[in-house]
Design goal:
Strand order of the largest sheet: 1-2-3-4
Number of helices: 3
Order of helices and strands: EEEEEHEEHEEEEEEEEH
Distance between the termini: 54 Å
């Protein structure tokens, strides 16, 4: 089960062992009586379902456009208005679209695009996901700091695969090309879980992978170089303002 909260609405997705994926859009309302403790009621706006070839091992709802958190160290250099302006500049309309990644025990992993608009009618299969046994886990995170999230899947055959869309707001780019395999990494045992966390506090997420043999942390050297260049430029700007 996976869930995304959208202010007064909630999007819930459930996958089952018989291959059924069910997506529900629920409206949440609260009582406004001051004399009574606030009570919340939910109303089903719509739901839909599809059936795939095999059991659903994992699924994840995600915003395709990254909404980064401002690193703590910037708070001492920039005003709240400057930080807000930077965030709005790099993540416009970040909450307008939501995609769904599904990993199956049999067959391929797939992405259902803009489920608020298309529900479960627009789907794109992830290439090479059927070459590495069952897909056990899925995740979406912006690895290369370009503002768009990449898709990561982990398989029973020890393989970690990273995909990138040319345009992450759609399941295919303007030329109709499917997502490409950005990187593949072979681990020593089946991959059970994937997550991302900013361990260094520099605004860049590191990839945490849980396998049957332990926990592994992957870092992108290219992304680190990009961050260092950006921080160096920022330092020069701040130094110039203070001089």
């Amino acid at each position: 089960e996976n869930e995304k909260k959208l202010s007064e609405f909630r999007l819930i997705c459930i996958g089952s062992s018989n291959g059924i994926i069910r997506l529900s859009f629920v409206e949440i309302s609260a009582s406004t009586d001051e004399n009574v403790e606030t009570q919340y009621t939910s109303t089903l706006v719509w739901d839909c379902s599809v059936r795939i070839d095999g059991p659903v091992n994992s699924l994840s709802l995600y915003f395709p456009i990254n909404k980064p958190k401002t690193p703590k160290f910037l708070g001492s250099f920039l005003s709240p208005m400057q930080i807000q302006a930077m965030t709005q500049k790099f993540v416009p309309n970040a909450e307008e679209k939501i995609n769904l990644i599904v990993g199956s025990a049999i067959g391929v992993a797939a992405v259902y695009t803009d489920v608020l608009k298309n529900k479960l009618n627009k789907v794109t299969q992830l290439p090479e996901s059927y070459f590495h046994d069952s897909v056990l886990c899925v995740h979406a995170v912006d690895i290369d700091c370009d503002g768009e999230k990449e898709i990561i899947i982990g398989t029973f055959a020890h393989t970690l695969i990273i995909y990138k869309f040319s345009d992450s707001l759609s399941s295919e780019d303007e030329q109709g090309n499917p997502p490409i395999v950005l990187h593949k990494e072979l681990c020593l045992s089946p991959i059970l879980s994937i997550n991302s966390l900013d361990f260094l506090g520099n605004g860049v997420n590191d990839i945490t992978v849980v396998t049957m043999n332990g926990i592994h942390i992957f870092k992108s050297t290219e992304t680190e170089k990009k961050v260092i260049r950006t921080l160096s430029l920022l330092s020069e700007i701040i130094t110039g303002r203070n001089s």
